[in-house]
Amino acid sequence: MNILVLNGSPHENGNVGNAIKNLLLKYDSDENEIVYHNVHELNFDFCRGCMACRKSGTCVLKDDGAHKIAGEINWCDMLIVGTPVYWGNMSGKLKSLFDRLVGVLMTESSRGIPKPLQKGKKAIIITSCRTPFPFNCIFGQSAGAERALKEILNYSGFRIAQKIRLAGKK
User: Fold this and answer.
1) Domain chopping of the chain, boundaries
2) What is the domain class of 2-166 according to CATH?
3) Which PANTHER family match (predicted)?
4) Where are the alpha helices (DSSP H) in the chain?
5) What is the pLDDT of residues 102-127, one digit of tens each?
6) CA–CA separation, 15 vs 136, rounded Å?
7) Residue 52 contacts by C-beta under 8 Å, 6 or more apart in sequence?
8) What is residue 157's DSSP assignment?
């Protein structure tokens, strides 16, 4: 299985990074190929919202880190996405990357209805917040980031195989 990992935390060895590394132990075999990226180390421009990628499947901006990830999204069988929770959502750099990936994640019908391009693939979501359990659930801290990622991944055709919520992490 081809596994793509996107660590959306600026701290490679922080809570999200460590959770990803522990999860990857489960997939450590010759049958799996794993590609790991720290999103904060990628260089890419922000999406300009031109929507040309919805027709062509390719972003019109210069070739950069987002183009590389786009190719790997098409290559992977499973996507693992981890993010710290910032103001009830995913990290800004991770969100900016997903904005740039629209062309490989979905297209649209002639009536403007979104159509997934990654059907049949699995995804795992990992979130980490400082708010301790059960208050992270009561206040919805982790839920916002999880909901945003689920929306992106579900519209893209990914099936969420697992959600991991880390709470009370500093």
Assistant:
1) 2-166
2) alpha beta
3) IRON-SULFUR FLAVOPROTEIN (PTHR43278:SF2), NAD(P)H-DEPENDENT FMN-CONTAINING OXIDOREDUCTASE YWQN-RELATED (PTHR43278)
4) 15-24, 52-56, 65-75, 92-100, 102-105, 135-138, 141-156
5) 999 999 888 988 899 999 999 999 99
6) 16
7) 59, 60
8) T
- Encoded amino acid at 144, one letter: G
Is 122 exposed, middle or buried, given 0-12, 13-18 or 19+ CB atoms closer than 10 A? middle
The predicted-structure confidence for 123-158, as pLDDT tens digits, reads as follows: 999 999 988 888 888 888 889 999 999 999 999 999
Could you tell me the two tokens for 71?
């190719």
**What is the per-residue pLDDT across 30-83, written as a single tens digit (0 to 9) for each?**
999 999 999 999 999 999 999 899 888 899 999 999 999 999 999 999 999 999
* φ, ψ of residue 13 in degrees (nearest 5): -105, 25
Residue 57 confidence (pLDDT)? 87
The first and second tokens of residue 43, run together, are 């260089």
Q: Which long-range contacts (CB under 8 A, 24 or more apart) does 136-145 make?
A: 136/165, 136/167, 136/168, 137/167, 140/88, 141/85, 141/88, 141/167, 142/85, 142/167, 143/88, 144/85, 144/87, 144/88, 144/89, 145/83, 145/85, 145/86, 145/88, 145/89, 145/90
Rounded distance, CA 27 to CA 4, Å?
12
